[in-house]
Amino acid sequence: MTRSRRPSPQTVAVLSALATDPSRWRHGYDLGQEIGLKAGSLYPILIRLRDRGLLESSWETEPEQGRPARHLYRLTESGLTLAAEVAHAEPAAQPRPAPAPQPRGAW
């Protein structure tokens, strides 16, 4: 059974950022800086997208001197299709906040 729920706003931001130049390999750090996500939110999203076949990942072949090799990411064809779909989808309905509780004894 396949789930068809809308991706989270954070996932949509990752897909959108990668879709701006789908042929370009991107570092996770650069993506996080661009879209304002910290590593604890970003990397689980990248791993999930990769595991679902929406991203491909690779190690840097020529890292900067003095820096270890980093993972690089880019969208697959399926990922690019999903990015286009979520970019054109209507925003999900936002729940209304609950009314503020009234103090006891207040009329």
Description of the molecule:
The protein has a 3-stranded antiparallel sheet with strand order 1-3-2. It has a domain of 74 residues: Winged helix-like DNA-binding domain superfamily/Winged helix DNA-binding domain (Arc Repressor Mutant, subunit A). The chain is α+β, with helices and mostly antiparallel strands. It is extended and about 70 Å long. The N and C termini lie far apart (53 Å). It contains 4 helices and 3 strands. The model has no long low-confidence stretch (mean pLDDT 84).
Shape: extended
> What is the CATH C-level name of the domain at 9-62 and 69-88?
Mainly Alpha
Tally of helical segments: 4
Give the helices and strands as they follow along the chain: HEHHEEH
- The total beta strand count reads 3
CATH topology of the domain at 9-62 and 69-88, anyone?
Arc Repressor Mutant, subunit A
Q: What share of residues are in beta strands? A: 5-15%
CATH architecture field of the domain at 9-62 and 69-88: Orthogonal Bundle
**How does the major sheet shape up?**
3 strands, antiparallel
Q: Mind telling me the CATH superfamily name of the domain at 9-62 and 69-88?
A: Winged helix-like DNA-binding domain superfamily/Winged helix DNA-binding domain
Strand order of the largest sheet: 1-3-2
Give average pLDDT, whole number.
84
How far apart are the first and last residues' alpha carbons, in Å? 53 Å
The percentage helix is 40-55%
As residue ranges, the low-confidence spans are none
Estimated structural class: alpha+beta
- Rg from C-alpha positions? 19 Å
